[in-house]
């Protein structure tokens, strides 16, 4: 209802702190600021994905979507106010753009659409919130290393495969002992004999892998990384189809997008296939880097909120007292 108000529906990304879900997070944040004597006025509560969208659109007129591909996964886009029934009582111009935070990391929590592997099932089952954020658990950086680890443990325990036979895999058996950077380093190994991957397994896991085991690990990392990139592209494609975007720019931020090898190229290829662009035509939906987009976007929204208050427009602002005295970021 307000730009300076927000009720936490549920924790994600492994967080699980009691007494927060179902409550407005602004008052305790303001209390913490006051306790430390910080001269800070909270003007807007911003989702990082919306921040990325706003920051990217500020410098690029073709920007229509903001996305986060990092520890989590999400997108935001601009919808016309006339298509948002919950805003009807504000009597806003129907063609006025409104940022929509999709939170589509929770897509298919019912497990009716996305094909899951046994490792996806385990990740979901053992998470703090089973049955939630199902899509995110298949594509986000927090979970890629765990999917890789679970698959390797399963292959080790499968006697017909005999991966790492006779080796101590106690470190590998620890949940979340690997993160997405482990897979990144495997995919970045430039040597034909995968010597860097060999050293990585020795250094991090105490496992001395032979050549077939290294090749298997490389292929497994490629499969997990490719699936993540292609599934991530599905969310962007869905927005393009809904809004009938034939071409646009997408501002993307997050560690997986910025650092995971081949993620951008794999995602672009998936968009070409899903949106069925003519062969040989340049990418019509261009996903571009928006580093620290969330922080820049939050500053922009805070500044615009203060500007609105100074102009006497306090629609959608709950606690505007004192904002007119604030300096814009």
Structural features, described:
The chain has 329 residues and is an alpha/beta fold. Helix content is 43%, strand content 9%. A hairpin with a 3-residue loop joins strand 1 and strand 2 (73-80). It is globular and about 70 Å long.
Proportion of strand residues? 5-15%
Structural class designation:
alpha/beta
Outline the low-pLDDT stretches: none
Across the major sheet, the strand order is 3-2-1-4-5
Gyration radius from CA atoms, angstroms: 23 Å
Count the DSSP helices.
Answer: 11
By DSSP, the count of extended strands is: 5
Summarize the amount of helix as a percent range.
40-55%
- Main beta sheet strand tally, sense and closure: 5 strands, mixed
Oligomer: single chain
Brief overview:
43% of the residues lie in helices and 9% in strands. The chain is α/β, with parallel strands linked by helices and 329 residues long. Strands 3-2-1-4-5 form a 5-stranded mixed beta sheet, with helices on both faces.
Topology:
Layout lengths: L25 H10 L12 H12 L3 E7 L3 E8 L16 E5 L16 H8 L10 H4 L1 H17 L22 H9 L6 H11 L5 H33 L4 E6 L1 H5 L3 H13 L9 E5 L3 H18 L19
Parallel strand pairs: 1-4, 4-5
Antiparallel strand pairs: 1-2, 2-3
Helix pairs in contact: 2-11, 3-5, 5-6, 5-8, 6-8, 8-10
Q: What labels describe this entry?
A:
329 residues; alpha/beta; five-stranded mixed sheet
């Amino acid at each position: 209802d307000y730009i300076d108000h927000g009720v936490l529906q549920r924790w994600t990304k492994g967080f699980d702190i009691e007494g927060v879900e179902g409550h407005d997070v602004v008052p305790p944040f303001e209390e913490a600021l006051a306790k430390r004597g910080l001269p800070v006025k909270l003007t807007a509560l911003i989702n990082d994905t919306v921040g990325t969208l706003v920051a990217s659109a500020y410098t690029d007129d073709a920007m229509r979507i903001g996305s986060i591909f990092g520890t989590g996964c999400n997108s935001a886009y601009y919808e016309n106010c006339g298509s948002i029934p919950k805003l009807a009582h504000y009597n806003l111009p129907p063609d006025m753009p409104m940022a929509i935070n999709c939170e589509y990391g929770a897509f298919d929590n019912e497990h009716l659409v996305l094909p899951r592997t046994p490792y996806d099932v385990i990740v979901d089952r053992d998470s703090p919130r089973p049955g939630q954020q199902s899509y995110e658990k298949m594509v986000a950086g927090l979970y890629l290393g765990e999917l890789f680890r679970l698959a390797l443990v399963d292959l080790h325990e499968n006697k017909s495969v005999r991966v790492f036979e006779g080796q101590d895999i106690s470190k590998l058996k620890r949940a979340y002992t690997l993160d997405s950077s482990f897979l990144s380093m495997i995919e970045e190994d430039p040597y034909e004999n995968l010597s860097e991957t060999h050293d990585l397994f020795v250094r991090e896991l105490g496992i001395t892998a032979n050549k077939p085991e290294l090749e298997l690990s490389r292929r497994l990392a490629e499969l997990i990384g490719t699936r993540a990139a292609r599934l991530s592209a599905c969310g962007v494609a869905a927005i393009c189809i809904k809004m009938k975007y034939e071409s646009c720019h997408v501002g993307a931020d997050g560690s997986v997008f910025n650092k995971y090898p081949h993620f951008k190229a794999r995602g672009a290829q998936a968009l070409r296939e899903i949106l069925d662009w003519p062969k040989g035509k340049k990418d019509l939906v261009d996903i571009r880097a928006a580093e620290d987009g969330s922080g820049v976007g939050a500053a922009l929204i805070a500044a615009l909120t203060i500007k609105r208050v100074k102009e006497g427009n306090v629609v959608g602002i709950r606690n505007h007292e004192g904002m007119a005295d604030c300096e814009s970021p």
